[in-house]
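Holo prediction. Input below; ligand is S-adenosylmethionine.
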Amino acid sequence: MTAPVGTPARSAQLLRKYGIAARKSLGQNFLIDGNILRIVADAAELGPEDGVLEIGPGLGALTERLAERAGRVVAVEIDRRLLPVLEEALAPYPNVEIVHGDVLKLDLRALIRERFAGARRVAVAANLPYYITTPILMKLLEERLPLSVIVVMVQREVADRLKAAPGGKDYGSLSVAAQYFTEPEWIAAVPRTVFLPPPNVESAVLRLRVRGRPAVETSDEPLFFEIVRAAFAQRRKTLLNNLQRLPAAQPLGKDGVRRWIEAAGVSPDRRGETLTLPEFAALADALAARRR
Ligand code: SAM
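Structure of the complex:
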């Protein structure tokens, strides 16, 4: 008898039938809890006129929940061994297309334009492969894809970083990028036991609601992100020390860097991890003005 998709019995059945062992190197921890699958799919706020891009469909458990809700699902899977499994598991859903490829190498803007033409909104939903969580999130954010929400299962520690406020150890470049482009919302904490095999870390589901406009305005966005990266380069050092290494600030010399930081209304003795987004924007604008 065939067990329903996304149950422990069905996942085990599929892996056995196709002689597949989960590959740790590809971050393969399959979700086997119907309740969590429903929570992730519901968080994407999908309707029949919407499209959803899934990253890493695995055995198709989340894909099925998405297919029940959205007009169209496109799922990108890197592991060729899973393609026949997905074909079998998702045969009842004509609105699903599996794309074989590496999400980090695909032109996602073109994919969205071609596969979701006419969709009211396009969301991303994914139980991410943890070995490339940050590069995937940065790609989704920095490419400014036309997305409504990004719902992701991530390591608990990454979820804390995405939501972190200034002043703590979790606040860093990833927090600034996530909060600049989106509004991160906590959806659920997820224990290891709902995965097959269980990962080594606790997990959480977050929804990143993509902003129409970035959270702060800056006259030079690439410079804003260069400053953010430099400010967190050595966490225990002051802004004055870290920002002196910024290529764009080299011509200023140490005193010039101090004057630039002060002109932005920020104390050069502070550490990067205490700065708010408006303060980073003020630093970018003050440096851009000096370079003109
Ligand atoms: N969505 C399934 C679930 O929830 O059970 C599987 C999630 S599993 C944590 C991550 C999936 O991402 C695996 O199927 C893995 O093969 C796939 N994957 C890993 N690296 C990838 C990449 N670079 N591009 C696309 N998929 C990838």
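The CA atoms of residues 181 and 214 lie 5 Å apart. That is the main takeaway for now.
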